[in-house]
Amino acid sequence: MSADGTRFSMIYKTATSGYRIYYSSDSATTFSYYDFGAANLVRKIEMSASGRCQMAIIGTGSVYISSDYGASWSLAVSSSLGVDVAMSASGLNKAAVGSDAIYGYLANPSTNCFSSDSCSAINSSVVVGVCGSSAGGTFTSAPVSNLCNTGSPTGVVSNTSTYTWDCTGSGGGATANCSATRNYVVTYTSTAGGSCVPASRTVAYNATSSAPTCTPNAGYALTGFTRTSGSGGTLNASTGAVTNVTGSQTIQANFSIPNFDGVCGSANGTPAYTPPTANLCNMGTATVVTTNPTTFTWQCIGSGTGATVNCSANQLTRAVPCGNYGDTNSSGFINYYDVVYGIANYASLPLTITDMNNDGTVTNADLLLLQDYVNGSIATFPVCSVVVGVCGSSN
């Protein structure tokens, strides 16, 4: 409607003729019409204050103009852009708004409307800023890609718990504010002597990086944790956990060889028939047990700078069951040393000592009999059961 209320233009669709613009110059008493046809939807009309200059979106978005109060119309822009139109009261300035741009038209001032029903278009693309796929993500360093789907990204600002940036629109398009979550990395390393898992943890701002699982190598012990780089948070020097994390950092697990003296175990001083195999050391590492003529000896080696101690146990003995059998070192009794001495020297010893099974030779079977006698598995040797005939006094 014109400013004085005399001029009207309206959209009307008939059942047979299609879309029309009806216009009136007598305050809507009578109407005439302009027919655009059934295929051309009339979507929007604007007019100047006088009503003489009019603008409409027709069909899929083409812009039509009228300079004679709506009596005739001509195509200004053929496109599918138009979704709305606007016009100043004078009719001098007009605009068509599309889904992707704003198209402006400036009429000839001398006619105060469309010059010869034609327009001079000024195309100014509208870009609305839209955040990219990095928005809403989680990063341990400022994102550098996928910042904006449309628009121009500003510099990324690193805040304590977020990264923020803008996707700046253009041509009047809006600017989008974008953000992503900022996390921090706590990395775990180890000195020689052990290892820890995991190698690192990704932690949210002010959250906790729980203690790693650390395993010392043989002979080493975990002595604690130190921060070797970075900052932000409270380190538990005993467990390696970091609470209230506010920055990326590296935590080192420290391993070392512990210092302690060797200590003999309960086998020390306890007499035995055979070399002891258990309870050799209460502290330290036991050496191989050595069999001496009357004792068993070994050492408990301390750790680090700790001292090494000597340990021993006396050997229990058994009587020679018959003759000199089994007494390989001619000591007058039998103990485990006879087994060791016999294994080393059986080839040079007489059968009257070594042929304990009375088969006329010395073999491994004889030495096994000796060992069984020492450990108490048998009470005598087979040779001791042999009865040798001796002539009586009538001989």
Gist of the model:
This protein is mainly β and about 400 residues long. It is about 5% helix and about 40% strand. Strands 13, 15, 16, 17, 18, 20, 22 and 25 form an eight-stranded mixed sheet that branches. It has a four-stranded antiparallel sheet with strand order 4-5-6-7, with no helix packed on it.
Tell me what you see in this structure.
It is rod-shaped and about 175 Å long. The protein is built from three helices and 31 strands. The termini are far apart. The protein has helices at residues 336-345, 351-354, 364-375, and strands at residues 8-14, 18-24, 32-37, 42-47, 54-58, 62-66, 74-77, 82-87, 93-98, 101-106, 121-125, 130-131, 138-139, 148-150, 152-153, 157-158, 162-168, 176-190, 194-197, 200-204, 213-216, 221-230, 234-235, 242-243, 249-256, 263-264, 281-283, 285-286, 290-291, 295-301, 309-314. With 395 residues, it is mostly beta strands. Helix 1 (336-345) runs antiparallel to helix 3. Strands 13, 15, 16, 17, 18, 20, 22 and 25 form an eight-stranded mixed β-sheet that branches. A four-stranded antiparallel β-sheet has the order 4-5-6-7, with no helix packed on it. Strands 8-9-10-11 form a four-stranded antiparallel β-sheet, with no helix packed on it. A hairpin with a 2-residue loop joins strand 9 (93-98) and strand 10.
Tell me the helix content: under 10%
Shape: rod-shaped
User: Structural class, from helix and strand content?
Assistant: mainly beta
Mean of the pLDDT scores? 87
Low-confidence stretches: 114-123
- Major sheet attributes: 8 strands, mixed
Question: How much of the polypeptide forms β-strand, as a percent range?
Answer: 35-45%
Termini Cα gap? 167 Å
Whole-number radius of gyration? 54 Å
Q: How many helices does DSSP assign? A: 3
Number of strands: 31
